[in-house]
Design brief:
Shape: globular
Number of domains: 1
Number of strands: 24
CATH topology: YerB-like fold
Order of helices and strands: HEEEEEHEHEEEEHEEEEEEEEEEEEEE
Helix content: under 10%
Strand content: 35-45%
CATH architecture: 3-Layer(bba) Sandwich
Distance between the termini: 75 Å
Largest sheet: 13 strands, mixed
């Protein structure tokens, strides 16, 4: 008579298989940055709102957002020179990461690509349903991303559009070929961050520094190019193959920070969650002048407006914008 497999053995095998599928790997760099990647793939169509974007409003343009690494081992990055907007986000341990918005032009390659954060959900809602290109996320954040309106574009879902750069240490070596990835239309950068002529007032300024716990950003005004040259830790930021990075406008946006105690890095630091809906103080650098004012964003679907101390509109200059989200 054939031997019937024992139920206990099958139960053990099933548990082992499930554990392997959800295994989490910690990757810690010498810079103090850390990331958890997970083998969890994108939910099937219909289970995440990001898979079925809503109808874009009139005047929408293609929007792609890439999470780009910013620690020393990741520099120089690729694709920063043609970004429409660069958001500097605080992350664990006093470091920063970049959320880079592309609309008017799309680079062939961008990176190094790193993980998404809960901050991205609220921040990017003002762009409608943008494609968010990232390497992965902590398992605790996956449900938050899945319930958001962004189109999730992980490297595990589009393996032919990503590659590892030889000679760079992991995890700072993942790059995305953006033309091979999906894009979604939404409000453009000039709708989200209104532009216009230089307002009256402001004070002449040649340079400005913004300090995070472990990084210092510097901005130096160039009258010849009419741009702010971007420096990081005293060294000019460059984009590989393109040279120095600059901005027409720099926004220092003072924001509230909440700690996600359920998500921590290898050193035990909680993941900060930036609140970009609400209001707060802001400094706008444009045309060689600094304007003190206020930022306001009533709801996640609204763009961010800026006003002077007297309540007059404070538009940004035409061209690339850097927005530094700084704890207040």
């Amino acid at each position: 008579m054939p031997t019937r497999p024992r139920r206990g053995l099958w139960a053990v095998l099933a548990v082992a298989l499930c554990a392997a599928l959800v295994a989490i790997t910690w990757v810690v760099t010498s810079d103090g940055d850390s990331e958890r990647s997970t083998s969890t793939s994108r939910p099937p169509p219909g289970t995440a709102r990001s898979d079925v974007p809503s109808e874009p409003p009139a005047g929408s343009v293609p929007i792609t957002v890439v999470k780009i690494d910013n620690v020393r081992s990741a520099r120089p990055q690729t694709g920063l020179d043609i970004a429409d907007v660069v958001y500097v986000e605080p992350v664990e341990g006093g470091y920063t990461r970049l959320a880079v918005v592309y609309s008017s032009e799309l680079p062939d390659v961008a990176g190094p690509v790193r993980s998404a954060r809960e901050t991205d959900v609220e921040l990017l809602a003002q762009y409608g349903n943008p494609s968010l290109v990232f390497s992965g996320a902590a398992p605790e954040i996956e449900p938050v991303l899945a319930e958001s309106e962004v189109r999730l574009v992980r490297h595990s879902d589009y393996p032919d559009a990503f590659y590892r750069e030889p000679g760079r240490p992991s995890p700072h070596n993942l790059y995305a070929r953006l033309p091979l990835l999906p894009r979604v239309d939404g409000p453009g950068p000039e709708q989200v961050l209104p532009r216009g002529d230089t307002p009256p007032g402001g004070r002449p300024i040649a340079e400005h520094t913004v300090a995070y716990q472990h990084e210092r950003y510097g901005f130096t005004w160039s009258p010849e190019s009419r741009r702010w040259q971007v420096l990081l830790d005293g060294t000019p930021m460059t984009s590989a193959g393109a040279g120095p990075v600059s901005a027409a406008t720099v926004v220092v946006q003072r924001v509230d920070i909440a700690a996600n105690e359920g998500v921590r890095d290898a050193a035990g630091a909680p993941s900060p969650v930036v609140r970009t809906v609400g209001t707060g103080p802001a400094t706008v650098l444009r045309d060689g002048r600094a304007f003190e004012g206020t930022w306001s964003r009533p709801s996640p679907e609204d763009g961010t407006q800026f006003t002077t101390g007297s309540g007059q509109p404070l538009p940004l200059a035409e061209g690339p914008v850097w927005v530094l989200l700084v704890p207040r």
